[in-house]
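Protein modeling request. Please complete all fields; requests missing the sequence field cannot be processed.
Requester role: graduate student
Desired output: 3D structure, token encoding
Chains: 1
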Amino acid sequence: MNPYVLSIQKELHYIFKNVSLLEEALRHSSLIPARSSCPKKQEKSKTQEKSERSFDRLEFLGDRVLNLCVAQYLYLQFPGESEGALSQRHSALVRFESCAKVAENIGLDRALEVATGTSFQDLRILCDALEALLGALYLDGGLAPCQAFIEKHWKNRTHVQAPPQEPKNALQEWAQERWKTLPVYTVLAKGGSEHMPTYKVSVVVANGESAFGEGPSKKAAEKEAAANFLKRLKSPYISNSYKDNVIKFLILSSHGGVATIPWDF
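Delivered output (265 residues):
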């Protein structure tokens, strides 16, 4: 048994009836290939198969549970806000950075079973683990304990005067207001491993100004690129030579598709 089973239940304020669900939620997929690579293959019982499952299926379920519970909480917490404002709040609260922070707060980074060498610098692992935990909690106890957990750990994240604006939406509004065109996002490079890919993306607006972003998914990298562009708008000086180099690079790389580049050129 995972030695952290008791401490995680304490953080959840919930005792599992089916502890194997919780153990599955604490098992990362990086462990499974190592176990299945044993040269001596034997027929496995259903119990053995369950004990070797990673949390991937529970993550699938928990993602839906998280979105539903956060949506319901916001709906009740902000009765006067429009659908658009609630959507902005929702997007900010279910981002992988927010989920990873909650995961760290309850000690999920210590409880998670992973293969040797797996790094928690990739916040997606902690986010996925938290969603898997919510999936297990939902299967064992229904929606009520999930709602209680989310209200406790997300409550302080909702007390802001106005809903946060998603960077891509903010940049899109800014670009359309000035040039009536949308920002263009381009994947410049993809690296990392199959389990932990890294995307590098550029965003360019109509006048050639650009910014870059990096993230564990194309969507995350685009969001960071948009946020970096908005930060640069506040700067009183943007180097013309920098813009010229960026434009030249994008023109050249567009002929060859995704390119590998020195990131800090």
